[in-house]
Write a structure and sequence with these properties.
There is one protein chain. This protein is of the alpha+beta class. The chain has 13 helices and ten strands. It folds into three domains: 80 residues, Arc Repressor Mutant, subunit A; 159 residues, 2-Layer Sandwich (Beta-Lactamase), CATH 3.30.450.40; 92 residues, Heat-inducible transcription repressor hrca homolog, domain 3 (Enolase-like, domain 1, 2-Layer Sandwich). The radius of gyration is 27 Å and the shape is elongated. This is Heat-inducible transcription repressor HrcA.
Length: 353
């Protein structure tokens, strides 16, 4: 029997597969030939439908559960459905209105905004909402202050364009007078506000090699303060998850061992963060069905994500995790629209600097 994949499916087979998957996604039950005959609109005999279903089963696109004569789509069948049979439509206006209404886009920290996005995605899809948290240094710097501490230490206060505040303690070779710290802060704020920390540090390293540079003259022997203030920081990457308990409502995920493994993955976050970082590197929507994610805990789940960013830079990804039996035609536009609104909010914050 030739393998039927992709566009090699004839019109009748594609129509029956689309009908079967739509019916299965709607009610979660195996779909029989009689139902297909009524729902597909094809003028063919039940025997012809059974033969086509047998071909689709041989191709690995549908399967017959042991307890039923009907068939269900396999992950491979769902992949074909999403890639070539699903007709995506823009998010309905009432859904878009709800997103805009419930996603506060006014002055707020990025972390608060991302938490709202995760919660809203969960509420709109009834799945688990996930959002990666970008490195703080990926946002432009708004302001810097220095506070002298005992033992030649300095508290560095960094205020970013997203209203987030980060404190760092820098150890210097010798104490610095408060007026010198004030001069240094004024210089950095005047010349570097609106730039990313990594870019500021690279600029400073070049400038500090010039003996006549303004910064060298300004800070005298304490030039290390400026570069130490913007040194790369470890950690900071994270992923926010909301609505994990929603997944307990789906029979296909209700096995206790499966749920335990899935919730442990949500708690540890390492594998989930790796997956979301892969998604963030690709533009547009990414979809993993079942084993495609490469992580055992997500077998039986689908992951739908879209990247977000600001000022031409990708900062992370938003998405949902749910059972493979999900309404892809609705979930994909919801995720895509949410990523777009989040990017718009971050762009506005960056340009308001």
């Amino acid at each position: 029997m030739p393998q039927l994949i992709g566009l090699d499916l004839d019109i009748r087979a594609r129509r029956l597969l689309r009908t079967l998957i739509a019916q299965y996604l709607a009610d979660g039950e195996p779909v029989g030939s009689r139902t297909l005959s009524r729902s597909s609109g094809l003028d063919v005999s039940p025997a012809t439908i059974r033969n086509i279903m047998a071909d689709l089963e041989d191709a690995g696109l549908v399967a017959s559960p042991h307890t039923s004569a009907g068939r269900v789509p396999t992950p491979r069948g769902l992949r074909l459905f999403v890639d070539s049979l699903l007709e995506l439509q823009p998010l309905p206006s009432e859904e878009m209105t709800r997103l805009r209404r419930e996603l506060p886009l006014g002055p707020t920290t990025t972390l608060d905004l991302l938490g709202n996005v995760s919660t809203l995605l969960s509420a709109m899809t009834h799945f688990a909402g996930v959002v990666t948290v970008p490195r703080q240094v990926d946002f432009p710097l708004r302001h810097i202050d220095f506070v002298p501490l005992p033992d030649a230490r300095v508290l560095v206060i960094l205020v970013f364009s997203d209203n987030q505040v980060q404190n760092r303690i820098v150890q210097l070779a010798k104490p610095v007078e408060a007026h010198e710290l004030e001069q240094a802060a004024n210089y950095l704020n005047m010349h570097f506000a609106g730039q990313r920390v990594d870019d500021i540090r690279a600029h400073l390293l070049r400038e500090l090699h010039e003996a006549s540079s303004e910064l060298n003259q300004l800070l005298s022997s304490t030039v290390e303060l400026a570069t130490a203030s913007f040194a790369p920081q470890s950690g900071g990457d994270d992923v926010l998850v909301s609505g994990q308990t929603n997944l307990m409502a789906y029979a296909e995920l209700a096995n206790l061992d499966r749920l335990r493994e899935l919730f442990e993955a949500f708690q540890k976050k390492n594998e989930l963060l790796q997956l979301m970082e892969v998604c963030a590197k690709a533009p547009g929507v990414r979809l993993f069905i079942g084993e495609e994610s490469g992580f055992t805990a997500l077998d039986g789940c689908s992951v739908v994500t879209a990247s977000y960013g600001a000022q031409g830079r990708v900062l992370g990804a938003v998405g949902v995790i749910g059972p493979t039996r999900m309404a892809y035609e609705r979930v994909i536009p919801v995720v895509q629209a949410t990523a777009g609104l989040l990017s718009d909010a971050l762009n506005r914050a960056a340009t308001a600097l």
